[in-house]
Amino acid sequence: MLKIHIESTKTPTIIKFVANKILTEGSFEYHSVEEVKNSTFIQQLFHLPFVKKVFVTANFIAVERFNIVEWADVQDELKGVIENYLAVNDSLFTAKTETKQVVVEVYAESTPNPAVMKFVSNKLLTSQNIEVTSLEDAKEVPLAKDLFDFPFVKEVFVSDNYISITKNNTVEWFEITTALRDFLKKYLSEAKPVITENYKPKVHEKTEIKPVATEDLDDISQEIIAILDEYIKPAVTSDGGNIMFQSYNTDSKTVSVILQGACSGCPSSTITLKNGIEATLKQLLPNKIEEVVALNG
């Protein structure tokens, strides 16, 4: 079933309406209703007096507002409008050939982990969470394989529209950020593959990262996953990482998770677990959670 959740950005006037399905394979930006020739829905958005700009890519619609309103006053209503439209329409666009294609852009964001930098693209890269911890693991991940040509690259994590890169201690970020950003922009502009058709997630020796079949889980586990998806994952993703539910022990009331990307090995990951994830779950599921542990923390 289609679901939309609201995700804030570092720009207060812009929020993202994120769907649980891919909305478009391209990236499209509109500054006025006159530019929209291929989507009656986006035209309707511009008829709202507070809509300044609309950006659509991958699985989300980003909307920039004028300062005549606050998002708190209108975001839920706008979320409902988007959900209702997508519930009965397969596509936002009526004619892909008329879309305004946006040039690939890449920008760098720091993360709470000083060894990790997040490089965000306006292009969907993958629908999977791809973690590559060595050149040997990169055989079926051409993007990561090329990144390992940089001698300072230690690990690569790819998810949605961003790449989190872990460096070693031989350089500082100010020395290499521009080179990495330029490389990624060129790589993505040339439409080179992120992964091959033969790619399969690597099972790590220390921690097995396995998909969890939600239909087989108990009610509390399903509630935990829903909370992680709605409240925790957007914040973790914005920091260049990912969190995956693994299990819930009904006797000890312990939740086990996997941390990936910038969150894995981050000095502040313990604080994130205890003050963020664990506290949120305890608040929303009172008397059901005692502890949250990272299996790879």
List the keywords:
297 residues; five-stranded antiparallel sheet; alpha+beta
Report on this structure:
This protein is α+β, with helices and mostly antiparallel strands. Helices cover 28% and strands 27% of the residues. It contains 6 helices and 13 strands. It has helices at residues 40-46, 71-88, 142-147, 173-189, 219-238, 269-284, and strands at 4-8, 14-19, 27-30, 51-57, 60-65, 106-110, 116-121, 126-132, 153-160, 162-167, 241-249, 254-261, 291-294. A 5-stranded antiparallel sheet has the order 1-2-5-4-3, with helices on one face. Strands 6-7-10-9-8 form a 5-stranded antiparallel sheet, with helices on one face. Strands 11-12-13 form a 3-stranded mixed sheet. A hairpin with a 5-residue loop joins strand 1 (4-8) and strand 2 (14-19). Helix 5 (219-238) crosses helix 6. The longest helix is centred in the C-terminal third of the chain and has 20 residues, at 219-238.
Helix content percent band: 25-40%
Helices and strands, in order, run as: EEEHEEHEEEHEEHHEEHE
Question: Would you tell me the overall average pLDDT?
Answer: 82
Counted beta strands: 13
Structural Rg = 20 Å
Uncertain spans: 96-100, 204-208
Shape: globular
Largest sheet strand order: 1-2-5-4-3
In angstroms, what separates the terminal alpha carbons?
A: 33 Å
Structural class: alpha+beta
Total of helices:
6
- Which strand-content bin applies to the residues? 25-35%
Biggest sheet, in brief? 5 strands, antiparallel
